[in-house]
């Protein structure tokens, strides 16, 4: 447990202790000072940077300038007809973006004061305003509104429109915001970020999933937390029970420290099971694999005794850099994973951008204009890959090349039509032909599987099973689409029910269809790592459960104290 030092830039007044409740996003207990991040410029937060982070912060500011300028140019190009006055104003705004009074002042403040770009920009605006206030000419004085407009554009770029999660905190903090993207969560890997709180999200939102994979304590769905918590407040974040204590007493802090110690002691006890076989008392073997987001988690995969990787979410490799990764970059990552776990299987899901992993956040200008009213039902996952064929082919080439170094399995997300699968098979066939002609080695018998995560795939499971080598049931989306519940919506997230009879019947039907065609059926949703739900899943006859690495000993302990008869009996009883 870490304790954050007092934030230098926040003077939080003494407050009465208050307890708020949300949803457990990721387990763990931390105590520290809050940094509240808000998208609006009138609620800016100031935080100090380490010296090593200053250059990166200046580069982030320059990227915001470039982004704002491009936004204005794109907007200008849309005007037609006789709008010369409007175009003249927009041209002046574009020139203002490059005005040294704003650019140099902000960059210097970042360096000299070691402060974040948002705060430095607001200070630069304040200094410019002081100069305008001393100008006698009223017309020129009124032009300050144009300067404010340009600065607001920059603040938007730094916040909700273009912001990467801020880094370089000078002390350990708990970050609080309305919401974070999964990519933001990946960027929180730092000893200076103890955990996070959000107003939005649920247990199975991608942001929460990533947090659990990274071992980052989180509570999500806390109503109005950005208004009730202020930068500098001392808080206790309880990721086990979804509880937040604002301005806790010393007794409360000691109590939670003991609570955390007890959880850690139980985790130490579970280490006994790490290297034992994942089988029931009567010898039924079930593969317990790991879900991971980034290669850095491989240490946990090996440590917790995973039987391979059941789901590598490859999209986070795309969101973490300024440019789309090329074939060699992807190949290097996939090759290292396969070699490290050989002969165990490594299942890599192709790019699953879209939904709450917005395609518009992918590097590359052609995605920036992609704004959908309902991303969860729009151009996402395999649909995006089939539309952006060069992007897809680059990834497939890297995957196939890596298959020459071990047991790699390719997993296709969000397949809803047989025709989609056939399109992918044609593309893979062409890529294989190209690699053969180039003399590049690959496994011609590489396993191809699909994610069963929409109701249409369940209905067509018998036909789809005849075309692939394995199924992997993605319950996170399957539940969302079946029950018409947005798992990231704080108002309905608590209605998200993995044990709904309809959900269990779809899982059972998928298992039966897969086994009838002689293929393995895995489940890689968050259900797999929940010890209260795993017995039912095991009783439904799944061949593999894939979960966050730290959950494997918990499920293995359960499995080794169970019998096949008890598990199947429980599943049959619940299915009724």
UniProtKB/TrEMBL annotation:
It catalyses: L-histidyl-[protein] + phosphoenolpyruvate = N(pros)-phospho-L-histidyl-[protein] + pyruvate. Residues 275-562 form the PEP-utilising enzyme C-terminal domain. Mg(2+) binds at residues 453, 477. It comes from the Bacteria. The keyword Metal-binding applies. Its EC number is 2.7.3.9. The active site is at 206 (tele-phosphohistidine intermediate), 524 (proton donor). One of its GO terms (molecular function) is metal ion binding. Residues 44-78 form a coiled coil. Phosphoenolpyruvate binds at residues 313, 349, 476-477, 487. GO terms for cellular component: cytoplasm. PANTHER family: PHOSPHOENOLPYRUVATE-PROTEIN PHOSPHOTRANSFERASE. General (non sugar-specific) component of the phosphoenolpyruvate-dependent sugar phosphotransferase system (sugar PTS). This major carbohydrate active-transport system catalyzes the phosphorylation of incoming sugar substrates concomitantly with their translocation across the cell membrane. Enzyme I transfers the phosphoryl group from phosphoenolpyruvate (PEP) to the phosphoryl carrier protein (HPr). This is Phosphoenolpyruvate-protein phosphotransferase. It comes from Candidatus Electrothrix communis. The lineage of its organism: Bacteria, Pseudomonadati, Thermodesulfobacteriota, Desulfobulbia, Desulfobulbales.
């Amino acid at each position: 447990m870490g304790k954050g030092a007092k934030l230098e830039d926040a003077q939080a007044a003494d407050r009465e202790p208050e307890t708020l409740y949300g949803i457990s996003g990721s387990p763990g207990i931390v105590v520290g000072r809050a940094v509240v991040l808000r998208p609006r410029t009138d609620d800016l937060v100031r935080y100090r940077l380490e010296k090593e982070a200053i250059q990166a912060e200046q580069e982030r500011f320059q990227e915001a300038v470039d982004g704002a300028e491009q936004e204005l140019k794109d907007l200008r190009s849309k005007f037609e007809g006789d709008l010369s006055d409007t175009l003249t104003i927009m041209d002046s705004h574009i020139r203002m973006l490059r005005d040294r009074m704003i650019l140099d002042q902000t960059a210097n403040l970042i360096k000299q004061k070691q402060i974040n770009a948002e705060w430095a920009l607001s200070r630069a605006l304040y200094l410019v305003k002081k100069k305008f206030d001393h100008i006698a000419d009223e017309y020129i004085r009124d032009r300050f509104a144009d300067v404010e407009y340009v600065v607001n554009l920059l603040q938007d770029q730094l916040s909700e429109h273009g912001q990467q999660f801020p880094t370089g905190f000078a002390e350990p903090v708990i970050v609080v915001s309305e919401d974070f993207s999964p990519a933001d969560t990946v960027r929180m890997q730092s000893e200076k970020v103890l955990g996070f709180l959000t107003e939005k999200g649920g247990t199975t939102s991608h942001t929460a999933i990533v947090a659990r994979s990274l071992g980052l304590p989180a509570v999500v769905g806390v109503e109005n937390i950005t208004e009730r918590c202020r930068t500098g407040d001392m808080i206790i974040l309880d990721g086990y029970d979804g509880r937040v204590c604002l301005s806790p007493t010393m007794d409360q802090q000691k109590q939670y420290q003991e609570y955390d110690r007890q959880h850690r002691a139980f985790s130490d006890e579970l280490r006994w099971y790490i290297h034992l076989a994942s089988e029931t008392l009567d010898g039924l073997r079930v593969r317990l694999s790991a879900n991971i987001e980034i290669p850095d988690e491989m240490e946990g995969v090996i440590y917790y005794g995973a039987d391979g990787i059941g789901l590598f979410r490859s999209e986070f490799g795309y969101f973490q850099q300024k440019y789309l990764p090329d074939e060699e970059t992807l190949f290097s990552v996939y090759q290292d994973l396969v070699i490290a776990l050989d002969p165990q299987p490594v299942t890599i899901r192709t790019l699953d951008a879209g939904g709450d992993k917005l395609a518009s956040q992918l590097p590359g200008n052609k995605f920036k204009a992609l704004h959908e009213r309902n991303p969860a039902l729009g151009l996402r996952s395999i649909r995006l890959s089939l539309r952006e064929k060069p992007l897809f082919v680059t990834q497939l080439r890297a995957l196939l090349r890596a298959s020459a170094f071990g047991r790699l399995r390719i997993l296709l997300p969000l397949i809803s039509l047989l025709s989609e699968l056939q399109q992918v098979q044609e593309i893979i066939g062409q890529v294989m032909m190209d690699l053969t002609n180039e003399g590049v080695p690959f496994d011609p018998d590489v396993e191809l599987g699909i994610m069963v995560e929409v109701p249409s795939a369940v209905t067509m499971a018998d036909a789809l099973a005849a075309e692939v080598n394995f199924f992997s049931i993605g319950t996170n989306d399957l539940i969302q689409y079946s029950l018409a519940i947005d798992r990231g919506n704080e108002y309905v997230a608590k209605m998200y029910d993995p044990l709904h009879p309809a959900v269990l019947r779809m899982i059972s039907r998928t298992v039966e269809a897969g086994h009838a065609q002689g293929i393995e059926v895995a489940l890689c949703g968050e259900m797999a790592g929940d010890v209260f739900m795993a017995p039912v899943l095991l009783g439904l006859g799944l061949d593999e459960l894939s979960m966050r690495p730290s959950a494997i000993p918990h499920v293995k302990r359960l499995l080794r104290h169970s019998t096949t008869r008890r598990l199947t009996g429980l599943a049959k009883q619940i299915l009724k």
